[in-house]
Specification:
Layout (H helix, E strand, L loop, with lengths): L1 E5 L13 E5 L6 E3 L6 E3 L16 E2 L18 E2 L1 H18 L5 H12 L7 H16 L6 H11 L2 H12 L8
Antiparallel strand pairs: 1-2, 3-4, 5-6
Helix pairs in contact: 1-5, 2-3, 3-4
Length: about 180
């Protein structure tokens, strides 16, 4: 007896296909083959008909490995996998504005430093006022600009800082110059 469960693509990522999870009662070890290539992974000890399987959202962490031991460091800074799509979209928007000459790299670096001046957890309302004012003043965004709200939300979640650090400092990308 075999039971087939579909692996969904909850993020709607382009190029990702749904892969069937196959569970074979006859195997007796309650393992799952995520790839269809007989690469079984065991996650449960006893699974009965009617039991529910919860698939947790996967996480990632962008890390610059200065030495081989760094890959074993487990600390904070994990993000959900759907943030990769948001990081990509955020970078494309920033890169487009930089390449078009709307902003300079100096402005973006100044914004990054300004947003790091206050700890968001200490005074969230003060931080939001400061972040909004910094976005308006440094990047010359209008108070009703849709991009202002998008960048403010990304900054509040730490996504803007991660995006800038990853692309500008780690990747050494210089939009308009590369």
């Amino acid at each position: 007896e075999k039971m087939r469960i579909l692996k969904l693509n909850p993020l709607g990522l382009v190029g990702v296909t749904a892969v069937p999870l196959e569970w074979s009662v006859s195997r007796g070890d309650y393992s799952f083959d995520y790839t269809g290539k007989h690469n079984y992974v065991v996650h449960v000890k006893a699974l009965r008909r009617g039991d529910t399987i919860e698939i947790a959202k996967p996480c990632f962490k962008l890390a610059y490995l200065e030495n081989a031991a760094d890959r074993f460091r487990v600390d904070e800074g994990f993000r959900f996998l759907d943030d990769l799509k948001r990081l990509k979209e955020l970078w494309e928007e920033l890169e487009k504005r930089l390449a078009a000459g709307h902003w300079s790299l100096s402005q973006v670096y100044a914004l990054q430093q300004e947003l790091r001046r206050f700890d968001q957890d200490d005074a969230p309302s003060l931080w939001e006022q400061h972040a909004r004012a910094s976005l308006v003043n440094i990047l010359d965004l209008g108070a009703a600009d849709e991009l202002l709200e998008k960048l403010l939300g990304a900054a509040g979640e730490g996504l803007l800082d991660l995006c800038l650090r990853w692309h500008l400092q780690v990747g050494k990308i210089k939009p308009g110059r590369n």
